[in-house]
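[stage:ingest] chain + small molecule (coenzyme A)
[stage:ingest] validated
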Amino acid sequence: MEDVRWLKKMLSSELEVRPPSSDKKEAKYLAGNCAKIYRDGDLIGYAEMRKVGSHTEISTVLVDKDFRKQGIGKELIEKAVKQIKNDKILCCTKNPAMAKVLQNLTFKSIGWPGLSTAIMLTFNTFARLLSMLIRFEFKRIWRQGKGIHKYERYEFKK
Ligand SMILES: CC(C)(COP(=O)(O)OP(=O)(O)OC[C@H]1O[C@@H](n2cnc3c(N)ncnc32)[C@H](O)[C@@H]1OP(=O)(O)O)[C@@H](O)C(=O)NCCC(=O)NCCS
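[stage:predict] done
[stage:export] tokens:
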């Protein structure tokens, strides 16, 4: 339950990621395909993984505010990469710190990700927009939409 509370708090305060869902759904996310970092028994880092076309996408990357700029983001992405079996990994971001983490781990900025991945990314973007609209998350929509041209796709090939 502590992990669910932490995740919901982080999702509520960080407007560049998806909005929080119910406790039950967040518990399911935490038990599913994700990477987690703990310190002294407390969850301090979280990232989700899901199949998107021919890639596995790492998304919803969160590090506790008190632990940022200490290499936890790097540790988290390294852990996610190890867990992913697919040899093509994708991460889309416009967050400069996230981009730096990916570049440090030799992710390469790519243009076209391939047809199947592009179709799924477009579908997921609309699904997320819809989920934010039905939750009246207008601040989040504004935050994510205003810099849409700054989003870069980073790929890692195993
Ligand atoms: C993005 C995030 C996960 C990074 O976590 P972190 O634990 O701070 O990451 P690390 O300490 O491993 O590395 C951060 C790197 O970014 C750099 N950095 C930090 N802020 C930066 C900024 N504003 N501009 C450019 N680089 C920045 C750091 O110097 C460091 O690089 P270095 O190791 O070469 O010095 C964290 O800031 C976060 O949770 N942000 C909020 C949620 C979010 O926006 N997630 C991304 C959604 S795609």
